[in-house]
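step: validate -> pass
step: tokenize input -> pass
step: predict -> running
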Amino acid sequence: MTTNVLFLCPHNAAKSVFALAYFNQLAQQAGLAVKADSAGTEPDEVISPLVAAMLADEGLDVSHMRPRLITAEDLRKARRIISMGCSPASLGIEPERLELWTDIPNVSQDAEGARRAIRTHVEQVIAELQANS
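step: predict -> pass
step: emit ->
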């Protein structure tokens, strides 16, 4: 299985965790042989307890995850890089390699809105992958 999508947010504790969990669930349900990973530029110590609880309510367990720092290898291997708050300059990559999701509310201010927006984006990515497979 190949890492096709790399989800990034600065702290790798909330937005990118939602995206990773939804992507891997939906890809598996769709029978796609793809996998997502996530990382951040300034990782927190732990995944947001609120995000973990919201995902657990949907049957998605992220309790084993720990925020981690993005590496050059992650960026090199990813076929698609999606950022929710990390700039190309902070990653040291060409802007055209980075897809920006700029319409995601801050989880600390609107967790449900962030969850819904991320799920909608992820569903669109899965649909694109299905159409191209």
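step: describe -> The radius of gyration is 14 Å.
step: cleanup -> pass
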